[in-house]
Amino acid sequence: MSDYKQCSRCNEVATTNSRFCVQCGHSTFTDLAANVAERISDSENPTTLFLRIESSRLIIASILSGGLYIFYWLYITWKQLAKETNDQHFPIWHALTWAVPFYQLTRLHHHATVIQDLASRAGVPTTLNAGTVVALGFASFGIGLASLFTFHPVLSFVLPVMDITLTTTIIVWNQGALNAYWVTRYGENLESAPIEKAEGLIVLFGISSLAWIFILT
């Protein structure tokens, strides 16, 4: 199993030509553990890639989480994209930048640009535009900020709904282009990504937060 190695810090599997771990950024690697090597060997023929995320799943998760799902989406897709770009990616830090005012927009622009460029190079027709995605992100930031300083009962409901709508639009639009790229790139070997624990937890946290806000009001 000489084509792969394992990060000595977090055990993330990487190809032999990788200089940095896509999960934690560490630069020291070890040989694959026996059980990991066996699992990779068993999965390679044929290779089934669990990458696609359906729009219905994104919409439901984004609404139920109160818009917090964008953190998970930025994380999981940035992790997936690392294998396509062969660049150094830090998916956790990348996702957390959504909480940093204005800097979040530069990272969102880069995220959308990577997807747009991959789709274009693969000959995938897409309406995705990184500039428009940033405009949606800026609008989401502005509405989210305004919702913190309003005490009008109607606006207190309408503004968060608008914010969730914008973040959901960002996710679905980008993922639509990415799904089309995955299909073109991997065809019949492509399957839907499984629901991970982190995904379920962030949705559960969002539901709990919305329920608590409803009780308090």
Automatic annotation (TrEMBL):
Transmembrane spans: 58-78, 127-151, 157-177, 198-215
Presence of the UniProt keyword Transmembrane in the record: yes
Keywords: Membrane, Transmembrane, Transmembrane helix
Protein name: DUF4234 domain-containing protein
Organism of derivation: marine metagenome
Phylogenetic placement of the source organism: unclassified sequences, metagenomes, ecological metagenomes
